[in-house]
């Protein structure tokens, strides 16, 4: 390091480093916008500074169902264990008060027979085992109740009632957690990206939805909401402003028959928040389109809801979904490997408002696409023709190289005869 410092001056090194840093373009990543609904349907919302925590205990059953599985299992185990220990202490106190713990009562010297409240309860361990037998209704035959103590009968009734309540609450909580509606929503899938293309002469926002299970979703309906930050004329800033947008559905009841993957379409018209957005403006827009699919599970009858969202970066302008349903030997087959695949199609880059004001833009776009398609076909045909000509020429050359030349033979009579070998 000392030799290098002596050869290269320090001022030159610093100047060179500064020049290299100036030459390198500094790319600043665009700050990632927090989305309201994640792609898997979870709400990206954090609740903070909640002062009235006691409201959650008023609805204890819903609180238990909303807890994570590890917390629910801990509460499930501790509720039974604590109840067994509590009533074991009560049985031990009953036996101690009656004198069943006295060693002299095991072999009484008098002629009167000693009758304990609970037979074979001589310690806290035996009282704990008897508590488990009473609450779980397991009878091993060694410990049993007698008619000696009315207090013991009261404790028995109380423990049975408490045990039934704990069983009902805990088992109901476990059942509700295993049969929650969002578990069924895991098999309802949405396309990773949405598209904007022309359908029936109108710009449309489209996405694909499908169901992986054979059991259907009854009365399924789709809603679309646009969430964006808006400011009112009074200057009030609304960070999460929700606007419902209609879904193009020929059925009046707005229900879909989700037996196969469907493409849900929203026509961008005057009622749509996307009416004034063009292809160049879409990237700069700070909006999020939330898709909500609701329906009733056919097997359980529980209402389920599947959600997803699309931000501006996930919307492809001028694309269309490829068909994935085909008919094979009298059966409709769905290829889910192409579920989110799209192809590029001709679409005007202007907004829907400009398209309504100047319908000629759509005609010009379609004509250009038709001309480009014809030119591509011509190029393809010319390339095929050239390839075929080259192949024929190469085949002729190879055949000409394989032809054997004619040889003339002279007979003694002087006549010539040509023969080919």
Could you say what the CATH topology of the domain at 184-345 is called? Immunoglobulin-like
Under CATH at level 1, the class of the domain at 184-345 stands as: Mainly Beta
Mean pLDDT: 78
- Tell me the radius of gyration: 41 Å
Q: Could you name the CATH homologous superfamily of the domain at 184-345?
A: G protein-activated inward rectifier potassium channel 1
Total beta-strand segments: 16
Pick out the low-confidence regions.
1-15, 22-29, 414-421
Number of helices: 11
GO cellular component, one term: plasma membrane
Transmembrane segments: 73-94, 151-175
Domain Inward rectifier potassium channel C-terminal: 188-358
InterPro entries: Ig_E-set, IRK_C, K_chnl_inward-rec_Kir, K_chnl_inward-rec_Kir6.1, K_chnl_inward-rec_Kir_cyto, Kir_TM
Give a quick precis of the structure.
It catalyses: K(+)(in) = K(+)(out). By secondary structure, the chain is α+β, with helices and mostly antiparallel strands. It has helices spanning 2-7, 10-23, 54-58, 60-66, 69-98, 124-135, 150-178, 181-184, 279-282, 352-357, 360-402, and strands at residues 188-190, 194-199, 202-211, 217-231, 237-245, 255-256, 262-267, 287-297, 303-311, 315-317, 319-321, 325-328, 331-334, 342-344, 407-410, 416-419.
